[in-house]
Specification:
Layout: H1 2-13, H2 20-28, E1 30-31, H3 33-38, H4 44-51, H5 53-58, E2 73-76, E3 79-80, E4 95-101, H6 103-110, E5 118-123
Parallel strand pairs: 2-5
Antiparallel strand pairs: 1-4, 2-3, 4-5
Protein backbone atom coordinates (compact mmCIF):
# COMPACT_ATOMS: atom_id res chain seq x y z
CA UNK A 1 0.00 0.00 0.00
CA UNK A 2 2.88 2.37 0.78
CA UNK A 3 4.38 1.65 -2.64
CA UNK A 4 1.11 2.52 -4.33
CA UNK A 5 0.82 5.81 -2.39
CA UNK A 6 4.45 6.62 -3.20
CA UNK A 7 3.88 5.88 -6.91
CA UNK A 8 0.77 8.08 -6.97
CA UNK A 9 2.71 10.91 -5.30
CA UNK A 10 5.51 10.62 -7.88
CA UNK A 11 3.06 10.59 -10.81
CA UNK A 12 1.19 13.58 -9.39
CA UNK A 13 4.43 15.54 -8.96
CA UNK A 14 5.51 14.70 -12.50
CA UNK A 15 2.18 15.89 -13.87
CA UNK A 16 1.16 12.48 -15.13
CA UNK A 17 -2.03 12.57 -13.05
CA UNK A 18 -4.11 15.71 -13.33
CA UNK A 19 -4.48 17.42 -10.00
CA UNK A 20 -7.82 18.92 -8.94
CA UNK A 21 -6.22 22.37 -9.19
CA UNK A 22 -5.16 21.81 -12.80
CA UNK A 23 -8.63 20.51 -13.67
CA UNK A 24 -10.19 23.64 -12.16
CA UNK A 25 -7.75 25.87 -14.04
CA UNK A 26 -8.57 24.04 -17.29
CA UNK A 27 -12.31 24.59 -16.75
CA UNK A 28 -11.73 28.27 -15.93
CA UNK A 29 -10.14 28.50 -19.36
CA UNK A 30 -13.22 27.13 -21.13
CA UNK A 31 -16.73 28.31 -21.78
CA UNK A 32 -18.89 25.32 -22.58
CA UNK A 33 -22.23 25.03 -24.41
CA UNK A 34 -24.44 25.27 -21.29
CA UNK A 35 -22.80 28.54 -20.21
CA UNK A 36 -22.96 29.88 -23.77
CA UNK A 37 -26.67 29.07 -24.09
CA UNK A 38 -27.42 30.64 -20.68
CA UNK A 39 -25.87 33.95 -21.69
CA UNK A 40 -27.61 36.94 -23.24
CA UNK A 41 -24.58 37.84 -25.36
CA UNK A 42 -25.01 38.30 -29.08
CA UNK A 43 -21.38 37.75 -30.10
CA UNK A 44 -18.49 35.64 -28.87
CA UNK A 45 -16.65 38.85 -27.94
CA UNK A 46 -19.55 40.00 -25.72
CA UNK A 47 -19.73 36.57 -24.09
CA UNK A 48 -16.03 36.48 -23.30
CA UNK A 49 -16.14 40.08 -22.08
CA UNK A 50 -18.98 39.31 -19.66
CA UNK A 51 -17.87 35.85 -18.49
CA UNK A 52 -14.06 35.81 -18.79
CA UNK A 53 -13.01 39.42 -19.27
CA UNK A 54 -9.43 38.69 -18.17
CA UNK A 55 -8.89 36.77 -21.42
CA UNK A 56 -9.37 39.97 -23.39
CA UNK A 57 -7.23 42.02 -21.01
CA UNK A 58 -4.29 39.74 -21.78
CA UNK A 59 -4.47 40.95 -25.37
CA UNK A 60 -3.58 44.44 -24.15
CA UNK A 61 -0.05 43.48 -23.14
CA UNK A 62 2.79 45.92 -23.33
CA UNK A 63 6.48 45.39 -23.72
CA UNK A 64 9.20 46.86 -21.48
CA UNK A 65 9.00 50.23 -23.24
CA UNK A 66 5.28 50.57 -22.40
CA UNK A 67 4.31 50.25 -26.04
CA UNK A 68 1.97 47.63 -27.49
CA UNK A 69 3.22 44.08 -27.40
CA UNK A 70 2.12 40.83 -28.98
CA UNK A 71 -1.46 40.16 -30.02
CA UNK A 72 -3.64 37.25 -28.97
CA UNK A 73 -4.05 34.53 -31.59
CA UNK A 74 -7.66 33.68 -32.43
CA UNK A 75 -8.92 30.52 -34.15
CA UNK A 76 -12.40 29.57 -35.37
CA UNK A 77 -12.81 25.87 -36.11
CA UNK A 78 -9.09 25.59 -36.78
CA UNK A 79 -8.76 28.61 -39.07
CA UNK A 80 -6.67 31.49 -37.76
CA UNK A 81 -8.55 34.80 -37.70
CA UNK A 82 -7.04 38.28 -37.90
CA UNK A 83 -7.44 38.99 -34.19
CA UNK A 84 -9.66 39.47 -31.16
CA UNK A 85 -11.88 42.02 -32.92
CA UNK A 86 -13.07 39.26 -35.28
CA UNK A 87 -14.83 37.69 -32.28
CA UNK A 88 -17.37 40.55 -32.49
CA UNK A 89 -18.60 39.11 -35.80
CA UNK A 90 -19.20 35.56 -34.52
CA UNK A 91 -22.72 34.99 -33.12
CA UNK A 92 -22.87 32.79 -30.01
CA UNK A 93 -25.78 30.82 -31.53
CA UNK A 94 -23.40 28.61 -33.51
CA UNK A 95 -20.74 28.06 -30.84
CA UNK A 96 -20.17 24.91 -28.78
CA UNK A 97 -16.93 25.70 -26.96
CA UNK A 98 -14.65 28.69 -26.37
CA UNK A 99 -11.23 27.99 -24.94
CA UNK A 100 -8.36 30.16 -23.77
CA UNK A 101 -4.86 28.74 -24.21
CA UNK A 102 -1.89 30.05 -22.25
CA UNK A 103 1.26 30.92 -24.22
CA UNK A 104 2.79 27.51 -23.40
CA UNK A 105 -0.38 25.64 -24.37
CA UNK A 106 -0.61 27.63 -27.59
CA UNK A 107 2.90 26.66 -28.61
CA UNK A 108 2.55 23.03 -27.51
CA UNK A 109 -0.90 22.38 -28.99
CA UNK A 110 -0.99 24.67 -32.02
CA UNK A 111 2.67 25.02 -32.88
CA UNK A 112 2.38 28.80 -32.73
CA UNK A 113 4.31 31.11 -30.42
CA UNK A 114 2.67 34.06 -28.71
CA UNK A 115 3.44 35.86 -25.48
CA UNK A 116 -0.24 36.28 -24.58
CA UNK A 117 -1.92 33.03 -25.66
CA UNK A 118 -4.82 32.16 -27.92
CA UNK A 119 -8.59 31.90 -27.99
CA UNK A 120 -10.14 28.94 -29.80
CA UNK A 121 -13.80 29.00 -30.84
CA UNK A 122 -15.48 25.81 -31.99
CA UNK A 123 -18.88 25.62 -33.64
CA UNK A 124 -21.45 22.90 -33.11
CA UNK A 125 -20.76 21.46 -36.55
CA UNK A 126 -16.98 21.15 -36.30
CA UNK A 127 -16.34 20.54 -32.59
CA UNK A 128 -13.81 17.71 -32.18
CA UNK A 129 -14.46 15.22 -29.37
CA UNK A 130 -11.00 15.92 -27.97
CA UNK A 131 -10.29 19.64 -27.73
CA UNK A 132 -6.53 19.04 -27.97
CA UNK A 133 -6.65 18.79 -31.77
CA UNK A 134 -4.34 21.30 -33.37
CA UNK A 135 -5.73 24.18 -35.33
CA UNK A 136 -4.51 24.75 -38.84
CA UNK A 137 -4.04 28.38 -39.89
CA UNK A 138 -5.60 29.49 -43.10
Amino acid sequence: MKKLAWLAAVLLCCGMIASPASAQRRERNRIRAAEIQASNAASVYELIQSRRGMWLMRNQSTDMSGQGGAAMLVFMDGAQLEGVEDLRQIPVAGVQLIEFLTPGETERRLGKYTTVGAIRVMSRDDTPQDSTHAAHPR
